[in-house]
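Standup notes
- DV: blocked on the single-chain target, sequence here:
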Amino acid sequence: MLPWNQLATAAIPGGGELRLMQRGDEFSIKLGANELMNSRLGGSEEALATLTFRKLAGRERPKILIGGLGMGFTLRATLKVTGSDSTIDVAELVPEVVAWARGEMAELFAGSLTDPRVSIIERDVGELIGAARGRYDAILLDVDNGPEGLSRKANDRLYDAGGLAAARGALRDGGVLAVWSSGPDPKFTKRLRQAGFAVTEVPVRAVNKNSGSRHLIWLAVREATTPVG
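- DV (later): unblocked, structure below
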């Protein structure tokens, strides 16, 4: 078996270091001994996009925010399921991850970063959500390990009551907050409902529908408000 080679490292704001690894044509991004993502295991991240846009079928000129570039699985799947009239903002906090996507992993990204629908924003996705008022039709969060943060404690703010209120405010009526997680979290499901979302939990697999680790996606819909009078 081929050995892993370390290609690059990147400091995470607030502490910690990411390592970009390669073995043959396989890539891995690790934090310490923990593998955060692998180029062979993108099925559940792709599902984050495909499941979301089943909820948005028929919506014209959708505006989408993706939190976390990673290895681009969610972005590439979003490009496949949305039309030419869509606008896709991708927030990535660590500039080196963007550089790796344009450099060492460029073949994996297959030109998705230069698609005219896509804007890469090197900024905390929480800041973008907080500044948006009714801008987005969908917010797709593939940040850290899900609601239970692994790489950066500050990510927990995305998933607490304040963060969910901000996400709801950033969505248009009928918009979808979709959240990827490495596993279930009943407390987070409860927080989503308390924040005013209609919630569906969807179990998914890391490789395809039949194989790989079991992950979870929450589809939280901001239901349309009813005018008074």
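- Follow-up: The chain has seven helices and eleven strands.
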